[in-house]
Amino acid sequence: MTTMLGLQLTGRRVLVVGGGPVAARRVQSLLADAAQVEVVAPQLCEVLLDLHRWGLIVWRPREVVEPDLDGAWLVHTATGDRATDEAVVAWAAARQTFCVDAGDGSAGSARTPATTQQGDVLVGVVSTGSPDPRRTLALREAIATQLREGRVDLRRRRAHTGRVVLVGGGPGDIGLLTLAGRRALAEADVVVTDRLGPVAVLDELAPGVEIIDVGKTPGHHPVPQHEIGRILVEQAQRGRVVVRLKGGDPFVYGRGGEEVLACREADVAVEVIPGVSSAFAAPAAAGIPLTHRGTVGAVHVMNGHDGWSSAALTGLRDGSCTVVVLMGVSALATLATEALDAGADPATPVALVEEGTLPGQRVTRARLDDVVDVAASAGVRAPAVIVLGAVAAAGLLEPDHGDAAHTPASSDPTAPGTVTMAL
Ligand SMILES: C[S@@+](CC[C@H](N)C(=O)[O-])C[C@H]1O[C@@H](n2cnc3c(N)ncnc32)[C@H](O)[C@@H]1O
Known about the structure:
five-stranded parallel sheet; Rossmann fold; binds S-adenosylmethionine; elongated; Cobalt-precorrin-4 Transmethylase, domain 1; alpha/beta
C-alpha cells in the first residue's frame, strides 16, 4: 500500500546519498521545496558541484556511514550501487525515517511522485504497484495538459479573496486565446465579456460561472466604461475571481489601463494576461505581412476615431511604415480625404480585413483614392482592421509577384479586377 502525503520540507534536513545526475535532480527539487539538503558522496557531478559552490547544499565528500542519517526527516539514496542503496534503506528503516531508493522504487519506504503544478495546486502521481516510471510520467503529462489548457474547473469552493484578471482573448478565433487566458477562465467565478474576442469560449465555461455581458456595438455603449470598472470591483469585493475577457490585447485600444486603475483605486488585486492583438493578427490571418524585408520595416498602429497624427501621415506619405488603423470603418472617408490632402500617393494600397481570424473573415483591397467607394459597395463593416501601405498590395506573397518585395508604395497596388477576397 502507498499513501500520498504533501510533505512540508521547508528548513528540514534531507539527506541525499549519491553525487550523480539522478541525485542532482532530486536535490534540485528538494531545494525548490526549501529543504535543507545534505549530500554524502565521494564525488559530485557538475550540477551538484555548482550547488555546493553557491552554498546551497552541504557536502560530505566520502562514502556514507550510518550516523549520517541521524536527524534527517527524509533520505534519498541514489548511489547507483545496490549494496549501498540497500544499506541506506535498512539504516533508515531502523531509524523510522522515510527513504526513497532511486535504484529500486519498491525497495524504499517512500516513492517520489511525478508532479505537476498549477497555481497553488500540486498534483502528484505514484504507482501503488511495481514502479513503472514511464507510465507514471505519461499520466502526469495527461493531467498537466488538461491543467495547462484550462480544461479543469479550478474555481475555489471555499471563501477566498476576490481578484480581477484582465484576459486578452485575441481577435476572435478561439485557437488564438492563450493557454494563460484559458487557465484564468478555469478559475473564474464570473466572466465579464463584450462582443469582441473569442466569445465562443463562453460556451465551454463550467456550469454556474456567471457571465456578465457589457458588450458594446459601434456608436452604442450600453455599459459605460466607469460602470464596467465598478462591476469588476464590486464582483471582486464579493470574494470572486473575476475574468474580464477582452478582444485582442487589453492594452491596445482596449481600455485595459482604465480597468486596472479602477481596481487599484479600490485596492482590488488585478493581473493582466496579454492577448494577440487584432492589429497584428487580422492582417497576418489575411496574408498581409505588416513588415516585409525590402518593402517596409516599421508599423504604426492608430485609432481611426482620433484621426491622423503627423507621424502616421509622414510614414504613409514617404512609404517608411505600414499604417494599421483600428476602429476606422466609420471614419474611413475622413481618413482617406485627409491623407490625400496631406500629399499621400493616391495609388497607396489599402486592405480592409473584416472579422479577422473568424469564419466571416473577408479582405477588401483598393487604392487610397478609391477605397471609400470600394468599401461602400462591398459593404465593409466593423470590426475591421485597415492596412495602408505597400504590404497591402494584392499578391505580395505570391511567388510570381516578381520584384514585389521591392515594390514602392507608388506602383499599382491592386491586381486587376481584384477588389474583394474571401479567405
Ligand atoms: C476597441 S478596439 C479593441 C482592440 C483590441 N484590444 C485588440 O488588441 O485587438 C476594437 C477594434 O479592433 C479591431 N478588431 C477587433 N477584432 C477584430 C477582428 N477580429 N477583425 C478585425 N478587426 C478587429 C477593429 O478595428 C475594432 O474596431
